[in-house]
Amino acid sequence: MLFAAERLMTSCHLSVDLVIGDVAVTQGKSYWACCVDPSSYLVKVGVGLESKLQEWFQVPQDVVSPRYDPDSGHDSGAEDATVEAPPPYAFLTIGMGKILLPHGAALTAREPNGCTVPLPPRLGVCLDYEQGRVSFYDAVSFRGLWECGVDCSGPVCPAFCFIGGGALHLQELVAAKQERKVTIGGLAKGD
Questions:
Q1: Dist. CA 175–CA 191, nearest whole Å
Q2: First to last CA, the chain
Q3: Which segment of 68-77, 81-90, 114-123 scores lowest on mean pLDDT?
Q4: Distance (Å, rounded) from C-alpha 76 to C-alpha 80?
Q5: Average pLDDT score, the chain
Q6: What is d(CA 116, CA 154) in angstroms, rounded to the nearest whole number?
Q7: DSSP tag of 81
Q8: Locate the B30.2/SPRY domain: which residues (predicted)?
Q9: What is the DSSP secondary structure assignment for residue 66, as one 8-state letter?
Q10: Which domain holds residue 135?
């Protein structure tokens, strides 16, 4: 189910709620932690370009048909000359008390599309805006879970996607241990 969630967004019959942080990061390093309720159906935790997040969740992900080929049809090699840009967002998928780590995230991955690890009590996210990197941690043991590049060409926001209901508590200021909680779809969700 977690592997299917990577492809499941707006084409599902479940409720999909997106919560975007109200403060965007435009410089430096930022860190926050959250606690995801292990009974949550599916939750995506991550960051993304403010300008792309709303667009991503409003356009159905399954609109590309097998008849549409984004390739120009010629083999000039011009497509190969482009430098691959980092993605505009990065998310970890959480469900059933586990985290789906993307392909290549763990050296011991048995599954071709990634592996799962137990959900820690707190999940930490560190965004290095200047380096264009986001890292996810077990915020209790500070063990690294996954790191990847992310487009930081504009304001970047923390973002959370709830598929089918769920709950999380966000610790805005880790040192001050302040938490906010919001209710969406009948279940409590932090933003």
A1: 18
A2: 25
A3: 68-77
A4: 9
A5: 75
A6: 31
A7: G
A8: 1-179
A9: T
A10: 16-59+85-105+113-170
